[in-house]
Amino acid sequence: MRKIIICTFLSLDGVMQAPGGPDEDAESGFEHGGWQKPVSDDEVGAAIAGWYEPSDAMLLGRKTYEIFAAYWPTADPGNPFTERMNSMRKYVASRTLTSLEWENSTLLEGDVADAVRELKASDGGDINVVGSGDLAQTLMRNDLVDEYRLTIHPVIIGTGKRLFADGAVPTSLEPVSVSTTKSGTVVGTYRPTGKPSYDSY
């Protein structure tokens, strides 16, 4: 069984929108694009590279797919991520796209949750869900997430899309590995373990 792994960069207050650049995603008037780099460091980069070692595919929503497809095919070939991102299999969940130009990309058909269940049951390595906030919400609601790999950066954004937004399914998480980089970024891997328990002091 393949694992579905949500790989996401978060601010301290949980914002995941547009970490990579000012023009990445300005939906809803978001004005803080590009917030990650100033609070990142080489340890974060090494951790992110490690996220891709056991994975041979990405699962992307439309918006993240279009951002990646516009960048990676012409990205610097000296960047070690360039070849990796272009050669990996990409599965794309979209209700509006009818064709995909980026190499090794496949458009999922039918119900997204059903299609992802089929992917999980197929042969292959782990599948990383990168960005793709709306898709992540769908996967969480349908109990399809096997692991979260998160970088939590020391910055408060205040507005924007959040991975764990209002209405998120209450879930208990087991920490697999958690460390802090020299810039103060928390790099954590967590696995869902079912519903949380409740008690009092």
UniProtKB/TrEMBL annotation:
Residues 2-186 form the Bacterial bifunctional deaminase-reductase C-terminal domain. This is Dihydrofolate reductase family protein. It holds the Pfam family RibD_C. It comes from the Bacteria. It comes from Streptomyces tibetensis. InterPro entries: DHFR-like_dom_sf (IPR024072), RibDG_C (IPR002734), Riboflavin_Biosynth_HTPR (IPR050765).
